[in-house]
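During the no-cost extension, the postdoctoral fellow (Dr. R.K.) reprocessed legacy sequence entries with the updated structure-token encoder. One reprocessed record is reproduced below for audit purposes.
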Amino acid sequence: NTVTGAQGLGTLGGNAGYATSVSADGAVVVGYGSNAAGAQRAFRWTQTGMQDLGTLGGRESLAYGVSADGQTIVGISRDSSGRWQGFRWRNGTMQSLGAITARSVSADGEVVVGSANGMAMLWDTQSGLRPLQLEYAPLLSAGSTLIEAYAISPNKRYIVGFGYNAQTRRREAFLLDTEP
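Re-encoded structure tokens follow.
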């Protein structure tokens, strides 16, 4: 079933919906929309409709990224205390990633990038959450910082975002090659 042109995806029962990312084949779209109670909720859309992904115990959640196969979704959700936490949703289960705004996920769903407290962050299934800067400090010039990571390439090698370049004394976009 091929769709051409723009296609409305609907909402979760409220009056707004926002698509933020799409799987490699276009079969899965993620984002967030208001539900009937007016709360913003993360969704996963396929040809069969829009699915509310739930929360980490709070009222709201927002999805920002999806893996190439559409099986892993990342974003943020309020926990039962009302604090925003990063999440990784897979196989119907939302897992907390800690204090990260999770923006993007690798093709296999194993590596997530985003930010927390003005630092670019990295999460993976092996080592959990940590500052991207510490992981790749030898690749940066002295005094430079990585502030926000927005996307990771499907093969996990490249990460993009912005940071502070100490050599030029300004904020700049970055492309980090993790295997120079």
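The first strand starts at residue 13 and ends at 22. Helices lie at 132-135. The remaining legacy entries will be reprocessed before the final report is submitted.
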